[in-house]
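Lab notes, practical 5.
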Amino acid sequence: MKISATLLIVLILGLLYYSSKKETAQLHMVIRTNIPNASPPSMRHKALDIPLPIVGPHGHVHEIKTTKWLGKVVHLVFWAQWCEPCRIELPVLEKEQVEHRKDVQVVLIDVDSHASGRIAAAELAKQEAPDIPLAFDKSGRLEITYNIHALPLHVLIDRKGRIVTMFTSTIYHRPQFERLLDELISEK
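Output from the prediction step:
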């Protein structure tokens, strides 16, 4: 009797803990849809120096680290061709790259695990965002490292190679994103 009562209490506590964690996670996702302010330079951590497998113009893959773009603001965008908000913001990202070419490097990182998805993503990116390098997270390592739970995920890295902010949201029709980008560009 004592053991079954103890098990029942443990089970109830476990269910309460699980349901509270589930609500917290959902609330966290709602909060993360807002574009945050830039963290102050003293609070920024060095960006992860993980090689990004970039696909060249002839389909050849070469690895580039974000440190290659030190001196520029780096805007990593984790996306997938099946993600409608991701598809919609491709022209916005292309415009960002073209307008801020000397100060910003946008990089699309496709998270499709299947070859057909990667091929479709490459075609879409080539058509909608030809000036942006395309990387693939074929192994899923980047997805795990950056703790991706929703798409699109934006990671902004300052000119010194430090992560400024990460957020899950779209950037089209978002003046707060433009202000954030302008703030980072003006930092020297």
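Observations recorded by the TA: The radius of gyration is 20 Å. Residues 15-33 have pLDDT under 50 and may be disordered.
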